[in-house]
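Worked example 2:
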Amino acid sequence: MAEHPHAKIVREGYEAFQRGDMDTLRALMTGDCTHHVPGSHPLSGDYKGIDSVLNDYYGRLYSETGGSFRVELRNLFVDGRGHVMSVHHFTADRAGKHIDEMGGIVFRIMGDKITDLDECVADMAKSDQFWM
């Protein structure tokens, strides 16, 4: 069975993120995309616009963890109406702390571009503590 086109876009995004391929990520997202990050830590909030998403959030994930942030895509679910839900496992180290957690993102896709990313984590308190 062929992969749904929206799932393919998200899978390509995860692969690009793992490679640090910001050019591919830029091509997969709209210029006005928004990534919503949950929690009450310094990285939480809304990153509006492709430059903010790539530089202010993804770039900071890299710099804050010394490049140790890793994400492994576990599953994708589609609704055929422009939504894809991912489930992933992530790990990172920073400031003598380690995180090893599950999370996910609800993606909104229009045409062939990601417009919105709503990130979710399994343990909000653990995530907040790690990023503080």
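Strands lie at 29-37, 45-48, 70-78, 83-94, 97-110, 113-121. The first strand starts at residue 29 and ends at 37.
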